[in-house]
Amino acid sequence: MKSAHGEPPSRNTKPDRPALTGHNGLPGFTPATDYADVAVIVVTFNNESDVPQLLASLRCETEDQSIKVIVADNSPAPATLDVLSLQSDVLSFSTGGNLGYAGGINRAMELVGEAGSILVLNPDLWVERGSIKTLRQRLTDSGAGVVVPALLDATGELHRSLRREPGLLRSLGDALLGSRFQGRPGWLSETVYDDGSYTHPHPVDWATGAALLIRPDVAALVGRWDEQFFLYSEETDFFRRVRLGRAGVWFEPAARMRHREGGSGSSPALTALLAVNRVRYARKYGHGMYSTSVHVIVGFAELARAWQPAHRRALHAVLRSRTWAMLPHAVQYPDPGLPENFPCGAVIIPAHNEVAVIRRTLACLARPLGTGNVQVIVACNGCVDGTEAAASSVPGVEVIRVQEPSKVAALNAGDRAATLWPRIYLDADIEISEEALRLTFEELSSEDAPFAARPAFRYDFREASHAVRSYYRARSRIPGTSAALWGAGVYGLSERGHDVLGEFPAVTGDDYYIDRLYRADEKRVLDCDPVLVRTPRSTKALVGTLRRVYRGNSEQAGAGPSGARDTMKGLLRSIRGPISAADALVYTCFALAGRGEPRSSRAVRWHRDESSRAS
Q1: pTM, two decimal places
Q2: Where would I find the beta strands (DSSP E) of 4-115?
Q3: SS3 (DSSP) at 455
Q4: Strand-pair partners of 258
């Protein structure tokens, strides 16, 4: 993360990195698990309309350096995460509550990994081209611990973002004069109003926390942001601890960022919190007389503005410290929860480069996981993207690393790590409902439990081509597809059923192997809320998928789940009119194309459909 001299590592010491492609064909971000020149941390709260513009501006900056992005979402609703889920190279996660700016930064910092620098950004700004490279250069040239850019509003007007360390006279000057008489001496104002100070690089005490580039060794030295402040004064405290650690803070005007501001909202409660946190800050660093004097000055400032309702609320809070606990503070969002008697079991998810889908899969398991009765294990096998970091960001999920890019190796590793029975084996791109999970666990735990079971499933081909839709309509009508364990991307085993299995053998189609392992009376398909199986979208993607399936079937001495002859009989019986006949014809053509793979290509053992994983 740093050199022996505490300097950020130079990009020249890193090997050339391949060009990455991200959202909508724009430049891509580095996976969160890899080294990047810059790790960007963003804390969001209902910022679904802001973050796309910020991320677009950051993508342009990847031409100058490698960048990874970690977003900690404090929102009570999923709208922001839904927007972020469309950009699979961004690591985003819910903090589980409104933890405030400091709390969100601390959670994101835990996932930064190796980086040459750490850039903390508000979600309601965007970066002018070349600014991050300029900040990094100033960080190196100055030897500072933190560098801040010039902030402009949406119209391009300079924002007075530089600050001096709070003190009695500055607090008194601000209390009496506010933003009036901006030419007053610096010892009477915390805000730096002098225009000349915004035209050249120089050391500063601190700046508003909308954007700051931090050296990783300094971040480690200073430690966690102080969460007692929730919002306001947390950056004042952080910058002071940077200076106490003998690491300077510099301003770089050539780096410019546009700030929409107001991202935290405005309310009487927040105005009161701003005033109270000034007192809290004084109490943290000052002795009794000093903190008491600041308390009086802050109260006087609010009294002078008490004709405004928000400042009347602030005055009331400043004068009555027992009410401080009622001001905005970190909260965990209530979990509607599930019954305490939710059945026990383990869910094992083999995952190979599944960063695009793993978060939505795990989101479906969040509430059952929270009961303490369900164990969720993600077995990352041969992953080189951000799958491991994305899965690790979900509280309670166990992530294990398998070096070999093998689904079978991941399944067996997951079995070795699991401690609960029964077990469900879930593909990383399959979403299972709480009802389906519960019923499958209950079925496999009952007195007359089968060896194997799976929930019902349905195909989602809304984004697919007409030919692909026709194929899956025909496939859905074949009786064998609804009675077998294969094809759903999920199945479960009881402990007795697993004893029959032992270990997963080295086969391509594990679900097909499981289906053939047990007799018809030893396995069941449950009538419940179906899991969603997203189909390939294009003809080419479907043919590639079928070739993999048929190769796997042939390895296991079978031409198909019930044999090709039985499949064709079922297909013919499903015809009820011209539309179903046309679908059957399309199905037959795809089946022939899947089986008609040239011999020269049989060395290619694996094909994965990426079209169904696309945003």
Answers
A1: 0.64
A2: 38-44, 67-73, 91-94, 97-98
A3: strand
A4: 126, 152
